[in-house]
Design goal:
The protein is 50% helix and 13% strand. It has 586 residues and is an alpha/beta fold. An 8-stranded mixed sheet has the order 1-8-7-3-4-5-6-2. An 8-stranded parallel sheet has the order 15-14-13-12-11-10-9-16.
Length: 586
Amino acid sequence: MRKGIGVSPGVAVGTAYCINEIFVNPETKRLEESEVLDELGRYDHARERTATDLNALYQKVASQVGPTEAAIFRAHESILHDPAFTAKIRAWIVDERQTAQGALHRLLDEYTVLFASTNDDYIKERLADVRDVVIRLSGHLTDVLQPQLGVLQGPLILIANELLPSQVVTLGQREVAGIVTESGGRTSHAAILARSRGVPAVSGVKGIQRHVKNGDTVVVDGREGHVLVNPDAETISAYLKLQREFFDLKDTLAENRYQPAVSADGHAVQLLANINNVADAQAAVAMGASGVGLFRTEYIFLTHPDVPDEEQQLEAYREIIAASPNHQVTIRTLDLGGDKTIPYLGHAREANPFLGWRSIRLSFEHPEFFSKQIRAILRAAVKEPGHTKRVRMLFPMITTLEEIRRVRTMVRKARQQLEAEGKPYGNVRLGFMLEVPAAAVSIDSLLEEVDFVSIGSNDLVQYLMAADRDNPKVNHLCQPLSPPVLRVLTNIIHACNAADTPVTLCGEMAGAPRAFVLLFGMGLRSFSMSPAFIPMIKDLTSHLTRKRAERIVRRALEIRTSAGIQRYMAAQIAEIAPNLKLLDTA
Ligand code: PEP
Ligand code: MG
């Protein structure tokens, strides 16, 4: 058995599909002189087929998901057509008699070594794109290293170092039962995708690519973070039973997804969705969310070759609002930097990117696009006849009162400008992400300046515990269910409730049963999460009473260790909602 971090709950048994096998099986064969021309022809043919693929993917994703998400394939086309890229491959085939496959592998190695010496996250992201193109090219060169999905039988378990950007947007084409990756933590591409699809997943499984080959039987236990490769028949049948229970549970929960979210003693909660694109907004509707509590706009920017202008943004926001449940959307302004960077903002290398020039700090330095974003959101909020539209604007990573005042001034100016230009705009409430401990400490003064608050517990926990949320080595510290985090959350929720300021929590813990019970007990009534978790949390709510949850919080606040809180909460969930056992994770 191999152990990683369970990043999406549930159990899956399936056939291994190793997406990145090219990386573990480099080709070393040398060509005979007589083979060189043929090999060049094979490479050119693979390039043509790759170009056709990318164009078809662009068209398909653009029409089914949206042009913004599809833009990544245009970026990949430009890598494919980069003369330097092709010149290198051809030179190695001709001068050094390498196979095209071997040359591709070498090119990737070269880029990897080159980029390893940089801390620039933008460059690292481009490496993922280059790798994506190389894998696609390689797929057209050999069917051995990159089998077609159709060859493999049964539900698939994807095995990868990480999921690549283009795979993330196209995976829906085939039933995927589970995902296992070597790198990444709870907030990696793979983890977010897995959760949004309700697919069990385990990340951070060291060496998994070397131990699994295509066609192996793999068990993924997303609750415990366990991965089993070719286990014995008895183990397989035990997990198949668990998997059936998992499917049954999902079906049962999904049946009640349009029920109101109310506790057993009549307290209503608001269950909202976290989304990145139109497809997620549709999933939010399908899962019974009552609105969107967090729309992460950076994905529009990350998948765009340059700064999307005001009209392009307006169009994108309108599309999202139209597709969202009840047309209620909280739009977060750009939250770039840290782990997400884009080239056109000229991001410099930093020693501590998460503590540096990121998020709102970066937006302030770029008023030319920040003002455009504010204007586009205000314009997208214009009510249409028959719409119950409600748009809110959320500012990430607010640390000080000055920052709140500064954004308010910017919004006021944007309204005045629009007024002067005769462009209609809507009524938009303003709030901030509470994700920096300093803001939690001075919450009282911040509350006076805003209409609502959204607790970004993913960042709040990493900053409070000084433990990188994406680093599996410090995952044991980056835990929401720890004594200091519970105390801080209690204070924040009480302060917001006392000031009558609406408060939502939109970090990953909102969709975790143990954390949800505690948050409800602290008095929180609005939660935003991956759409796939909404039916489960709705069911859990219906088993809860306020008194019981408050009692649980009082007891949990007395426990002095994270492990103790986990044990206590596991027992509580087992009592409150034994039916959810399969979806309850630490
Ligand atoms: C958070 O920090 O909790 C959050 C919801 O935002 P993100 O995960 O995008 O940083
Ligand atoms: Mg955050």
